[in-house]
Amino acid sequence: MGGSRHAAGRMFGLKQHIFGFLAAFIVVILLLLGIFLAVMVGSYQRKQNQGRLEELEAYGETLEESIGRLHDVVGSIYSVSSAFQGICSYRTEAEKCGYIQELMSVLQVQVRSNRYLSALVVNYDYGEGVLYYIDGMLDYGDTKMLWSTGKTIMEGSMGSSLEDAAFSYTKLVQEAEHALLYSVIMKKKSALISGSVRLNQGLPEELEEAASYGIVYEGEFYRTGGQEAGLTREDCIGLCQGRNRVGDKFVYLHRLDAEDMAVAEILPRSLWLYVHPWHILLMVLMLLLTVWLLLLYRFIYKQLSEPLADMTRTLMDIRKGDWEVNFTAPNRITEIESVRQTVQLMLKELGQYKIRTYEEQLARQKTILQFLQLQLAPHFYTNCLKNIYYMLMMQEYESAEQFLLRLSRHLRYLLQKDVTLVMVETEKEFVENYIGMQKLLSSRPVTCSMAVERAAREEEIPILAIQTFVENLVKYTVADRERPLEIQVQVKVIRMEQGRCLALTVSDNGPGYSDSLLPLLNQKSEEIPAKEFGVGILNLLSRLRIHYGTSADWHFDNQDGAVSELRLPLQE
């Protein structure tokens, strides 16, 4: 006993343990791979963000250096150069020519010696004359733009009187045909000097294909390279150092220390900002691994666990006495399929044997039912024939005709071959026909009211289930002229704990069942001795046992007359 308990303690279910372990293993593997991928993607994103910010920082440093140098050069020429001072207030044309030659040399030297400078322009004589030196990156259209801008600023600051001209210092961003320029303009009297640098200096050598590069200056975005940004003035408000999320874009921003300006890189929000193509490949491999593990789990579950569980359930049902079982789980494993086919063959042979036994039992029950039904008829037929004879002898031909018509319906109903179940509505019509016969047979006052619920009319009951009680009451209840026999029949569908059932109640206003018969009718024993007052009812109870087994229930009582109740189960 102890060894058996010890051995049983070591037993475990295949599904609960092996498949639980397999599922846990798959989850752990996928979790580790997911964590590894998340770490890689996070590291890649941090590296990309850091790289973009470093590129912007280098770009910003280049612009700061070039803008600072621009301020130095323009300020130096403005305040130190004697040629510029002279061109503002020359006396003769000879002095003017000398100052022009000297200024051209100064402009040339400054542009050539400062690689960040794009152009230096001097406007004199209140914008009528212009001197310029431009590197090869700008064309004449850019020169005209610089001159026009300088002249407009000078005229706007001087007004109509040259004597009223005051010092003017202006910074602005100009969009040229082939470049975006940052310009510094200084005016003194009748002349001004303007210098420009290109704002695309310092951009990364390899620009990202979908990116847009530029500067944010005075609340506006100016593109210096890459794609169109689509960044509005409202979008530029509130941008801070580092990465910003604006609508469907990412804006990387780096502010310049010396200027109220920031350099920016704008990228659309897409998958490639987060992952590298190698990450996509790793995701695909993870997905394939996941699918493979799930297919493996499904294969083992379907081809091993489920067939074994199905076989176990089948054998347990057989142990409980249920032989109507079969295997339902598919299987392609040779060993399990061999065992299953062997068990199926055994079950098939046992099933055939059980079918033969069941058919023999049904045949015996059918014979018993037919015998019990035939027991109900003979004594009634004799009385009917005698009454017809008396009607004819008394020349009551019309009554005899009606009675024969009702009797033919009665006999046709009783003599149906192999009929054991009928609809409630059919039984109701038969009982009404029987009451009509009784009214013609004698002058006894008999009334029968039948209340059949609509839901119960098409349900099936054993033949003569209502007629037996009605006939028994008519036959054995003594009629009183002043108190006629009243029979009530009620049929309805009710729901109980075990399911739906048909509730059939027959009651009358007679003396009720005898004290000796009532206990016998209420007991469920199959061995009930026949009594003179209850042969038909006992016959019906025997048929109910054969048809329903223990599922049918009945109860008999006396409540101002006999009350007979049946509870017949209905199929869902």
Attribute tags:
disordered N terminus, elongated, 14 helices, 572 residues, alpha+beta, single chain, 5-stranded antiparallel β-sheet
Number of helices, counting only DSSP H or I runs of 4 residues or more:
14
Portion of residues within helices: 40-55%
The N- and C-terminal alpha carbons lie at a distance of 47 Å
Mean pLDDT metric = 78
Q: Which ranges are low-confidence, i.e. pLDDT below 50, for 5 or more consecutive residues?
A: 1-8, 157-166
Provide the structure class.
alpha+beta
What is the molecular shape?
elongated
Classify the beta-strand content into a percent band: 15-25%
Task: Give an account of the 3D structure.
This protein is an alpha+beta fold. Helices cover 51% and strands 21% of the residues. It has helices at 2-9, 14-79, 82-88, 93-113, 140-158, 233-236, 277-319, 334-374, 378-393, 397-414, 424-441, 467-476, 517-522, 535-548; strands spanning 117-124, 129-134, 168-175, 180-188, 191-198, 212-217, 220-226, 242-246, 249-255, 261-268, 421-423, 446-452, 460-462, 485-496, 499-508, 553-558, 562-569. The chain has a five-stranded antiparallel sheet with strand order 2-1-5-4-3, with helices on both faces. The longest helix has 66 residues, at 14-79. The radius of gyration is 56 Å and the shape is elongated. It starts with a helix and ends with a strand.
